[in-house]
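Hmm, how's this folded?
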Amino acid sequence: MKYIDEINMSDYDLLTSKEQCEAFEKAMKMVDKNIQLHEPIIKAVLYFDTEKSSYSESDSFVDSVRNFIEKHPISFPSKKPDQSITQKYFLSDNGFVNTKAEASTIRDPESVEMIEEWLHDKSIASDKKFGLSSYSLKHRAESDLGKYLTNGAFIQACINVGYKLDRIEGGTNAYLYADFGDMNIIKIACKNLGITYGELGELIGYGLDSVRKSASTGKISESMQKAIELYLRNVELEQKLSKSESFKNILKEWVKD
C-alpha cells in the first residue's frame, strides 16, 4: 500500500476492510495526534463509508478524513498532551538546556504552529525511535516550509503534538518516537545545500561510494550523521554571522549619513 498521504478515495475503496481500518486510523492520527477514539475503529470506518459519496474518487484520503472529523468533532474528541510531559523539559531557541534559568520563550511562535502542521502531514507517532535527530529533521522542515526554523521551535512543536522525546546525551537535540518514512540526513543535506553526494563526502571526510550507499540504504552510521549535523550547524552559524556583519555595516553607513 502507498503512504497514507499519497492515496486518494479511489485507492481507499480497493483496500480490504482490515486495510481500510488501518488506513483510517493512520489518517486520523495525521489529522490530530491527540484524538481519542473510545469506540472500535470499525465503527468510525462504517460511519465514514456512509458519507463517502460526498467525496470524489480523486480527493486525497487524508483530506477526506480530516473533513469528516471536522464535521463530527464530538465523535473525535482531542485530548491535549499531558502537561507533565512539557514541564520536565527546559528549552531555548537552540534546543534543550539544563535549568529553568537557562530556558527562554521560543521567539517565533508562528514557526512552532507551522512545524506542528508539517509534523501532521509528514509523520505518524511510533513506538520506535526515528534515526534522525531533531536538528536534522528541522532542516527538512525548513526546506519544505521555505523558512528558517530553530531547533527549539522544532522540539516545542513535537512536544505540542504529543510525541515522546529522548534528549540526546544531555545536549540540545532530541530523538523522536515517530515515523517520517524514508527521510535521511544525507538527502536532506544535499537538497538544502544544493550539492552532490560526492561534494558532501569531501566536506565531511567520506568517500563517494560510502555516502551514496548510506543514502540509498538509509543505514547511516552515527559518526557520519554527527559529521553532517556538525557541518550543517557550522553553515548555519556562518550564515548568522554574515547577516550580523551585514547589519553592522548597514548601521555604520546609516550613522555616517
